[in-house]
Specification:
Helix content is 27%, strand content 21%. The longest helix is centred in the N-terminal third of the chain and has 19 residues. With 214 residues, the protein is an alpha+beta fold. 42% of the residues are buried. It is globular. Helix 2 crosses helix 3. The protein is built from six helices and eight strands, in the order ααββααββββααββ. It folds into two domains: 98 residues, 2-Layer Sandwich (Dna Ligase, domain 1); 102 residues, Glycoprotein, Type 4 Pilin, CATH 3.30.700.
Length: 214
């Protein structure tokens, strides 16, 4: 489960205020249409995530090869690091504030070095990391009845607080929809019943790929 930001959602999000945590689409179930990336594009992003971490630990410039055009499109995404099967860091941008390749560079490095739940990754650990990337669709209003476990991620907001959980989280923990809603509230520091009392419920889908398998 990834760390979430506390401040209110800005009208025009920037990379700086979205860390830690796609085009306009209709507000209905049909809008949850994730992008689909080729095997080569996926592999390129995973390699880029590793290179981002390695270059930071080695205190050198990142080595960039030619970036495919689709990876230059702005996307929100989360990068999750696993070490020996356990989460070792997870950071993301909720909103498409940067080209996808840059989002992966930034979130991989931050997950390795700046996730406050963990000590920074060491060089020895970096060589053993498995990486999972979740590319997000647009956020859109969703009702509890529309939520499909394993398909939808959630962001629940009330006042200056908000919590976000990725689609894979309830499946990994064996939650039902109500528990998923409650845990998303808790993630944002909200009472567990806030989703029933005026909180905004937004959903999204994610294309998840990488080296980690459950």
């Amino acid at each position: 489960m990834c760390p979430q930001p506390e401040p209110p959602k800005p009208e025009k999000p920037t990379r700086e205020n979205q860390l830690l945590t796609r085009e306009q689409i209709p507000q209905s179930q049909s809008h949850f249409i994730p992008a689909r990336y080729s095997d080569d594009e996926r592999a390129a992003l995973v390699r880029l995530a590793h290179e981002s971490i390695d270059s930071a630990l080695e205190e050198r410039e990142i080595k960039l090869q030619a970036i495919p055009e689709r990876l230059q499109e702005p996307r929100g995404a989360f990068t999750t690091l696993y070490l020996e099967g356990e989460v070792r860091g997870c950071v993301g941008y909720v909103y498409p504030v940067s080209p996808l390749f840059q989002t992966v560079i930034d979130t991989a490095r931050s997950a390795a070095l700046h996730d406050v739940r963990f000590l920074p990754v060491t060089k020895e650990q970096a060589a053993r990391l498995e990486i999972s990337i979740s590319v997000l669709s647009q956020l859109a209003t969703i009702t509890p009845e529309e939520i499909e476990l394993g398909k939808h991620g959630l962001m629940i907001s009330l006042g200056s607080r908000r919590g976000l959980l990725l689609p894979q989280v309830p499946v990994e923990h064996g939650w039902d929809v109500i528990t998923f809603l409650q845990q998303t509230c808790l993630k944002g520091g909200l009472p567990t019943d806030s989703w029933q009392h005026g909180a905004s419920i937004e959903g999204f889908t994610a294309e998840v790929f990488g080296e980690h398998s459950d």
